[in-house]
Amino acid sequence: MVYKKTILLALSIIILTLIGCQQEEKIDIRGDITEINKSADNKIVSILVEGELEEDTSYDKASISIDKSTSVYSATGEDKVSIEEITEGMKVEVIFTGLVRESYPVQADAKTIRIIEQNVNNEVSGEIPNNEEVQTTNNESTIRLALEESNYATIDDILKRREDIDIMEWSSDETCVAFLINDTDWGGRMYLWHVGDLEPIEIQAEKDIICEFIWSPNSEYVIADIGTSNSRTGYVVKSKDNALLYNIGYIGNFIWSPDSKFVALAMESEVKSIALTELDGTTDIYLFNIETEEITIVDKGAPEYFLWITSWDSDGLLHYEKSYVNEPDKSESLTYKYQ
């Protein structure tokens, strides 16, 4: 009897295993690709998928990492396609692998991606033939950022036609443009688009409230000015590498040196002001070396006044102001000779 029970138990396990193997894996999310993130070498590394929570899915929004082990299939589910064929606007079904990081949106690794619809706006491919968009709506933010011919005119034109791009600034030599895609109420994504490239590159920085892009005179660097008060942050990006180098903090604004080696900026001082202001201390003026990140003091503020930079002449003369706290009509213009 024991022998027979053992055989029956073994058969039951085999049958259950076979049934389990024949069942389809559960779909974790079904929805539209609303964001694609790429590496420095222009490879897709993650996507953001947004959809509805359905009876056969587990999530309505997910940030999904992609690597070489991820399998991407066409709508039939039979033909494998390249990861690089994924584009924004596609409707997909995704099966996760490994642990799911329970944030919102959840973060997970993709095991399988199946393309349901090529593009929710009925675009036939990811490119724009003859620089004209193929779309069935009047929403200009659906224009895909891809070109067949890349030059200053074509890039400038396509960016100006996108409703969700309200900040863009060309380098002084007009070889690259920095721009912001506002996709949330509190910030957006920063991109660089080089003349000659068919698509822009996203700069991997935290989404934030970017107010302005300020290029160095030699077009090698661009700083994204961020903040909603006098205390601000700048993301320093090296253009040719599409690389975010570091962040710098400053008060009010900053100014590039004529040779692009330094920025002049005001920083909060340890010296307390005699008046109650947004800052705890007064301000000092510094030169910041863009390559070495070293700072050099130009002038120090005092309890009764703040220092603000105003301009930097082509001959190297830096201009700044001394503003008195209790005497708003009183100020002094000062200069510093940059060697």
Question: How is this structure best described in words?
Answer:
With 339 residues, the protein is mainly beta. It contains 2 helices and 20 strands. The protein has helices at residues 2-22, 152-160, and strands at residues 29-38, 44-51, 61-65, 71-73, 91-101, 106-117, 165-170, 176-182, 188-194, 201-202, 210-215, 221-226, 231-238, 243-256, 262-272, 281-289, 295-299, 305-312, 317-324, 331-337.
**Count of separate DSSP helical elements:** 2
**Average pLDDT value?**
82
Instruction: Give the DSSP E fraction (strand runs of 2 or more residues).
Output: over 45%
How would you describe the shape? Answer: elongated
Q: Element order, helices and strands? A: HEEEEEEHEEEEEEEEEEEEEE
Radius of gyration: 27 Å
Biggest sheet character: 7 strands, antiparallel
The largest sheet has its strands arranged as 11-12-13-14-15-16-17
> What's the number of extended β-strand segments?
20
Measured between the Cα atoms of the first and last residue, the distance is 98 Å
Class by alpha and beta content: mainly beta
Q: In terms of per-residue confidence, which ranges show pLDDT below 50 for 5 or more consecutive residues? A: 1-23, 120-139
Task: Name the helicity range.
Answer: under 10%
SSE order and pairing:
Elements (H helix, E strand, L loop, with lengths): L1 H21 L6 E10 L5 E8 L9 E5 L5 E3 L17 E11 L4 E12 L34 H9 L4 E6 L5 E7 L5 E7 L6 E2 L7 E6 L5 E6 L4 E8 L4 E14 L5 E11 L8 E9 L5 E5 L5 E8 L4 E8 L6 E7 L2
Parallel strand pairs: 3-6, 4-6
Antiparallel strand pairs: 1-2, 1-5, 2-3, 5-6, 7-8, 8-9, 9-10, 11-12, 12-13, 13-14, 14-15, 15-16, 16-17, 18-19, 19-20
